[in-house]
Design brief:
Number of strands of chain A: 8
Radius of gyration of chain B: 22 Å
Structural class of chain A: mainly alpha
Order of helices and strands of chain B: HEEHEEEEEEEEHEEEH
Oligomer: heterodimer
Largest sheet of chain A: 3 strands, antiparallel
Helix content of chain A: 40-55%
Strand order of the largest sheet of chain A: 1-2-3
Distance between the termini of chain B: 15 Å
Structural class of chain B: alpha+beta
Radius of gyration of chain A: 23 Å
Chain lengths: 417, 252
């Protein structure tokens, strides 16, 4: 009888189910995973070191490229850290805009997650449905910042500019005209807020469609129920956060427990799972999308009623307007100093965390009083989740490893930084 | 706020005495400096004891304090001819691999900073310790206490060269296979060391020394600003001669 040995297999880094550039060394006993050793760092760009060589504001663009599926939430953690060290208070309108865009970001992140997770587990059509809605969130990003994804919209002291009065519209082309054009522009006749409101009112019905496809689907349940079970104690020990923690039954959401921006002013519920398996994490994410829609509507209502500044009126930190610079010497000097040298942040250290769609995204900032950070460290949720991968996959089949990678909701921009 | 922080700080000093010093309390997080020889025992107490119960280590990272507080742009004199523009610095953006400087022997150069979270008390805590030897920084590993420290310590080892004693699997994690040096140290050039490309004639990937020139667009400037009062909350806590369990319970 021949000797039976475990089989070591290389998974990725170029693999559609690896969600980017994950290289996984799997030790297999037949089709059962004995050990999983993720090799990461293929997307390592030393963002933290680059930030040490740049004035504070020039790093905001890099933040979008960390977790490139939840851009504005990353920016939020970073600008909050700077604001804490500077000790500045934001105008409430800026806080509400941030809350609203954080939730829109959560929405688009979960949409992408449900799309790619569906794709991994064989529900191909989810991709088409989810991307249809996600495209609208991208349009909102574009309307407000000019960029579909890498917005660079949050700034220390507020947000870059106020919400536009006119939502962008489709123009007539030989392919889109007449009734078709009218249908596509139906929500876009008014302001951006009108568009967001129409979207948020409509979207629960879209989530119903996703749920019809997946929630009671026999194949979906076979692939996710009792797969990758994490007990609450282990979830805590392994540094899990966000949905990975709530899916295991720990009711912990920074938006409730340590509120930031305007989360203490809006009403929402925190869904919590029971079994800690992939299916529970799916349910939690779907319910979070519904809650996000509710938060977005509350923010829209407030923003309609309360016009005002969206940026701190402090020229030492935020630049003056173009008009002010034309006839005010001081404003011109401030502008020049801000864009050549930046501002100095008082010495000290701080840690600012936000409840990003994937979990706790934290920013540890050490300043020595210079115009550049001395040390910047990002606590990426995906990094901790992936480190628990080995434990979660042990004893599962190879195909289940794919389901587990999927529900970890990994994006390698933030894992590798 | 400051009162609560002070009572929290008092709690630590009462319990741990000399082995910890309370550092900054900016933005509501107490920062504890722990002597490296007490690192493990204090951490175990922080996890297990009722008053603390920090169940999760959310984050751990290394910090290289080389060049802390150094400015690159000092105007030493101003005359009718102009200002002195002396950029005199060896920041990571101003040298390449071949001319990297010999690092000065700095006391307390490598720090390990961790952020703890207590789900029960909804509190965060920052703990920090310094490696005793700058040439070969060694710090005990926290993996046994909080499993999440595993990859964070691997990262700190990879990027800063801090060795974690007792770590089960201390390998590089983010950098390339066969990488030399520890890239986040302040004496490692910003432009890096080697560049990788595919050579179509050799039909394989080749490693070459980087060709880009190091440059700094905005010099590092420190300006004191009287608007910011950086004075911390007053944390002078009197240490009782013989701290008792009951007392620390009251302080909570």
């Amino acid at each position: 009888m021949s000797e039976i040995r475990n089989y070591t297999m290389n998974f990725g880094p170029q693999h559609p189910a690896a969600h980017g550039v994950l290289r996984l060394i799997l030790e297999l006993d037949g089709e059962t995973v004995v050990r999983a050793d993720p090799h990461i760092g293929l997307l390592h760009r030393a963002t933290e070191k680059l930030a040490e060589s740049k004035p504070y504001n020039q790093t905001i663009g890099y933040l979008d490229r960390l977790d490139y599926m939840s851009m504005m939430c990353n920016e939020h953690a970073y600008v909050r850290a700077i604001e804490q060290l500077l000790g500045i208070e934001l105008p409430p309108r800026a806080q509400y805009i941030r809350t609203m865009f954080d939730e829109l970001t959560r929405f688009s992140n979960h949409l992408l997650w449900i799309a790619s997770c569906g794709l991994d587990l064989g529900a191909m059509s989810m991709f088409m449905y989810a991307f249809r809605e996600r495209e609208m969130v991208m349009d909102m990003y574009e309307a407000v910042s000019g960029a579909r994804m890498h917005a660079g919209y949050y700034r220390p002291g507020g947000v870059y500019r106020d919400l536009p009065e006119q939502m962008t519209r489709y123009e007539e082309t030989p392919w889109t005209k007449g009734k078709d054009l009218k249908r596509r522009n139906e929500w876009r006749e008014g302001s951006l807020l009108d568009f967001i409101e129409a979207f948020a009112r409509d979207v629960p019905s879209k989530i119903d469609i996703y749920e019809t496809l997946l929630t009671e689907n026999r194949i979906w349940k076979q692939r996710t129920v009792n797969i990758g079970v994490v007990s609450p104690e282990r979830a805590m020990q392994m540094g899990f956060s966000g949905v990975m923690l709530r899916g295991s039954g720990i009711e912990w959401d920074l938006r409730k427990k340590q509120p930031y921006a305007m989360y203490d002013q809006v009403d929402f519920d925190v869904p919590v799972g029971v079994n800690g398996d992939c299916y529970d994490r799916y349910l939690v994410r779907v319910e979070e999308m519904r809650q996000s829609a509710g938060i977005i509507l509350q923010c829209v209502d407030w923003l309609r009623e309360n016009p005002g500044h969206v940026m701190l009126k402090n020229f030492k930190i935020a630049p003056p307007t173009r008009e002010e610079m034309k006839d005010d010497m001081e404003a011109l000097i401030h502008h020049f100093k801000l864009f050549t040298e930046g501002y100095c942040v008082p010495a000290g250290e701080t840690y600012a965390a936000v409840e990003a769609p994937k979990g706790e995204f934290g920013c540890y900032l050490v300043s020595d009083g210079a115009n550049k950070p001395f040390r910047l460290h990002f606590r990426a949720p995906g990094f901790a989740h992936l480190s628990g991968m080995d434990e979660m996959t042990q004893g599962h089949m190879l195909a289940d490893a794919v389901a587990i990678i999927s529900t970890l909701d990994l994006v390698f921009g933030e894992v590798d930084r | 706020m400051s009162d609560t922080l002070k009572s929290v700080a008092e709690l630590f000093v009462n319990r741990f005495g000399d082995s910890v010093t309370v550092g900054s309390t900016q933005s509501g997080i107490v920062s504890l400096d722990i002597a490296v020889e007490h690192w493990l025992e204090v951490c175990r107490a922080l996890r297990d004891e009722e008053d603390f119960s920090y169940g999760q280590l959310t984050d751990l990272c290394g910090v290289d304090y080389l060049g802390y507080g150094q400015s690159e742009w000092e105007t030493e004199h101003a005359s009718s001819g102009g200002f002195s523009r002396g950029v005199d610095s060896l920041g990571p953006g101003r040298f390449d691999w071949a001319d990297r400087p010999e690092a000065d022997q700095v006391e307390q150069r490598f720090g390990v900073v961790a952020h703890l979270l207590s789900f029960r008390h909804n509190k965060r805590l920052r703990i920090q310790c310094f490696a005793p030897d700058e040439g070969m920084p060694i710090v005990p590993s926290l993996v046994e206490i909080w499993n999440s420290a595993n990859w964070y310590e691997r990262e700190a080892f990879d990027l800063f060269g801090i060795v974690f004693e007792g770590h089960p699997d201390l390998r590089r994690i983010l950098t390339d296979y066969g990488f030399t040096g520890h890239p986040f140290r302040k004496d490692f050039p910003l432009i890096g060391n080697v560049a990788v490309r595919y050579d179509s004639r050799k039909k394989r990937v080749v490693y070459e020394p980087v060709e880009i020139e190091s440059r700094v667009l905005v010099p590092r400037v420190l300006r004191s600003d009287s608007r910011y009062n950086t004075d911390d909350v007053d944390l002078a806590v009197e240490v009782p001669a013989a701290p008792e369990q009951a007392e620390s319970g009251e302080a909570n």
